[in-house]
Automatic annotation (TrEMBL):
Source organism, top-level taxon: Bacteria
Pfam family, one: CCG
The protein, known as: (Fe-S)-binding protein
Cysteine-rich domain ranges (all copies): 4-85, 136-220
Entries under InterPro entries matching the protein: Cys_rich_dom (IPR004017)
PANTHER family: LACTATE UTILIZATION PROTEIN A, UNCHARACTERIZED PROTEIN YKGE
Native organism: Streptomyces brevispora
Length: 255
């Protein structure tokens, strides 16, 4: 299958390893991964903040970059960006776009997937040959749960990882408090929610807290580092791409 990889803003600027790991994993599974060089922000942050007309050029560019019929699927290591493409782009195109934009958005949204749902729903794969001998807990992000409804797909993938010690996160479906601009506009509330999340992570004794969104991991990881918790954050793609022959960095070296 020819797969178009969408890097996302955070992946491009702060967490490139999550994007690289996604490409490595999909290629290892036998697929042709392409990276349209003209891709930009999907426009999620504009829509979430109430600016629905402004991202029209971004939505149009996304449809043009990934609308090529040779690209059979668009995959991204982000539940929030996948949710934006699948739900918000249609809203923007309907309200402020033209017929060409609406058609382009419909074409691309039908083949857009967050990484875990692509692996499980499209490739019918849960065991992807990963090896990760560490204690891990999983935080399900809000957009993946409530907008994409990926359910337990990330957990099914993690349970199949060789040598992993996967432990359940208490109150897992509670928001971590990030929410993009929410963390800036409501800093006190965001911080309180983060503290609850960190307390629950601490009870697991996990070496790693993983998730499908770099944005949540950035928020959680920042909090964990400030209290020197000993738990680090790592994107789901980085765990799934690790193998016995190409393992992830030892935990003590990666801190």
């Amino acid at each position: 299958m020819r797969i178009g990889l969408f890097a996302t803003c955070l992946g491009d600027t702060l967490f490139p390893e999550a994007v690289k790991s996604t490409a490595v994993l999909l290629a290892r599974l036998g697929h042709d991964v392409v990276f349209p060089p003209g891709q930009t922000c999907c426009g999620q942050m504009h829509v979430n903040t109430g600016y629905q007309r402004e991202p029209v050029p971004l939505v149009r560019n996304f449809a043009e970059q990934f609308g090529d019929a040779s690209i059979e699927a668009v995959v991204m290591p982000s539940g929030s960006c996948a949710g934006s493409v699948r739900h918000q782009h249609a809203l923007v195109a309907e309200r402020y776009g033209d017929a060409a934009l609406r058609a382009g958005v419909a074409t691309v949204r039908a083949k857009t997937y967050e990484l875990s749902e692509f692996l499980v729903d499209v490739l019918d794969a849960t065991d992807v040959g990963a090896y990760f001998p560490h204690r891990v807990t999983y935080h399900p992000t809000c957009h993946s749960l409530r907008m994409l409804r990926v359910g337990d797909k990330p957990l099914r993938l993690l349970r199949a990882v060789d040598s992993i010690d996967l432990v359940e996160l208490p109150e897992a479906d509670a928001c971590c408090g990030f929410g993009g601009t929410f963390a800036l506009k409501n800093a006190d509330t965001s911080t309180a929610m983060l503290q609850d999340k960190m307390r629950n992570i601490a009870t697991t004794g996990a070496d790693v807290c993983t998730a499908g969104d770099s944005s949540c991991l950035m928020h959680i990881g920042g909090g964990l580092s400030r209290i020197s918790s000993g738990t680090r954050t790592l994107h789901l793609a980085q765990i799934l791409s690790a193998t016995r022959t190409s393992p992830h960095l030892p935990m003590e070296a990666a801190r």
